[in-house]
């Protein structure tokens, strides 16, 4: 999960902003993920040690790491995380500011990955034909993810490997909804 960005449009540290449930944005996202994944690697920026400690105490599946170049863009955080998971079979690239994804969606994405007959699948969820998050990549793509820089995201890999992409239509608008501004907090 990527949560090393500055979130400038929010006006404050959105990762600790309270949702209507009472949980912080990042706490809610971690909680949703932990219902579906065995391990969660959370990529933060240097200086987030207090946040990392609090989240790690709340979720035993969580490992927090600090991307030295997180301030240079999401690509650097993604590359740092990818460099640490070479023994994983696959990885869902989750964004820390997307707390509205239903746990069932994570489970459906995983199921599509494990049931795929493709040698190296990329599971790309969509809602009403709009691509969403998280995209789950087979470990064959970890080297390419590890080479990302700046604000590059992983979407270009889908364009480069269309033969490996499985579009998974979901009935969860949460896969499209990130929190960029305080008004986004009150979504369902």
Helix-strand pattern, N to C? Answer: HEHEHEHEEEHHE
Whole-number radius of gyration? 15 Å
Shape estimate: globular
Q: How many domains would you count in the coordinates?
A: 1
CATH topological fold name: Spore Coat Polysaccharide Biosynthesis Protein SpsA, Chain A
The helix content is 25-40%
Residue runs with pLDDT of under 50 for 5 or more positions:
none
Strand content: 15-25%
Largest sheet: 5 strands, mixed
First and last CA, distance: 21 Å
CATH architecture: Alpha-Beta Complex
The named CATH superfamily: Spore Coat Polysaccharide Biosynthesis Protein SpsA, Chain A
Number of helices: 6
Q: Average pLDDT, to the nearest integer?
A: 93
Q: Structural class of the helices, strands and pairings?
A: alpha/beta
Structure summary, number of beta strands: 7
Structure description:
This protein is an alpha/beta fold and 188 residues long. The protein contains 6 helices and 7 strands. The protein has a single domain, classed as Spore Coat Polysaccharide Biosynthesis Protein SpsA, Chain A. Strands 3, 4, 5, 6 and 7 form a 5-stranded mixed β-sheet that branches. A hairpin with a 2-residue loop joins strand 4 and strand 5. The longest helix is centred in the middle third of the chain and has 13 residues. The chain is globular. The relative contact order is 0.19.
Show the helix and strand layout.
Elements: H1 25-34, E1 40-44, H2 49-58, E2 62-66, H3 74-82, E3 90-93, H4 103-115, E4 122-127, E5 130-131, E6 135-138, H5 142-146, H6 155-160, E7 165-169
Parallel strand pairs: 1-2, 4-7
Antiparallel strand pairs: 3-6, 4-5, 4-6
